[in-house]
Amino acid sequence: MRSGNEPVTARSPLRLRFWLSLWGLIWAAAGTVAFVLAGRPGWAAACGAVVLLAAVDLAVVLHHIHQGPHYQPGPDIPPYEPPHH
C-alpha cells in the first residue's frame, strides 16, 4: 500500500550490486586460476563455486536492469486511503 511518504530521491541498488558482482567474479576467477596453478584443488573448487554464484547474481542483476523501472505512481497521484476496519 502506498502511504505517500516514500522518499522522492530513492535509488535502486542494482548498479552497486552489478559492480560488486563483477568485482567478485573477477577476483574469484583469478583465485580459481591461481589455486589451480598452485596445485590446490580444494581451494580452486571453492573459488569456482564463488565464480558460479557471482555469475548467477550478475545475470539476475542485468535482467532486472534491462527490465527498466517498474510503474510507480508519480507525485501528482494522491496516496491511497488506508482501509478503515
Outline type: elongated
Poorly predicted tracts of residues = none
Percent range for β-strand residues: under 5%
Largest sheet: none
Could you estimate the helical fraction of the residues in percent?
A: 55-70%
Order of H and E elements: HH
Distance between the termini: 15 Å
Count the DSSP helices: 2
How many DSSP E strands? 0
Question: Which structural class best describes the helix and strand composition?
Answer: mainly alpha
Rg is 21 Å
- Overall residue-averaged pLDDT value: 84
Label this structure with key terms.
single chain, 85 residues, mainly alpha, 2 helices, 60% helix, 0% strand, elongated
Descriptive account of the structure:
This protein has 85 residues and is mostly helical. Helix content is 60%, strand content 0%. The chain contains two helices and no strands. The protein has helices at residues 14-37, 41-67. α1 (14-37) packs antiparallel against α2 (41-67). The longest helix has 27 residues, at 41-67. It starts with 13 loop residues before the first helix and ends in an 18-residue tail after the last helix. The mean pLDDT is 84.
